[in-house]
Write a structure and sequence with these properties.
Layout: E1 18-24, E2 30-38, E3 46-50, E4 53-56
Antiparallel strand pairs: 1-2, 2-3, 3-4
Amino acid sequence: MIEGRDWPDCKKCGEGLLIPLSDYGRDGASIMFKAWVCSNPGCGFNIRIDNGEISLGRTIGQSNK
């Protein structure tokens, strides 16, 4: 966890914290806070932005890239 940051509590499970994840766009530009995921492995809550659309609770899996 990044020191000095207070991440929000997960509203779904109330046990984990919502942790931000970053990614890279098509042109290699950094995208800060593209997704937020619950730190509780049993919860699985996530919210993300894809092509300007917000999606909630999609199944999280490993990328094949």
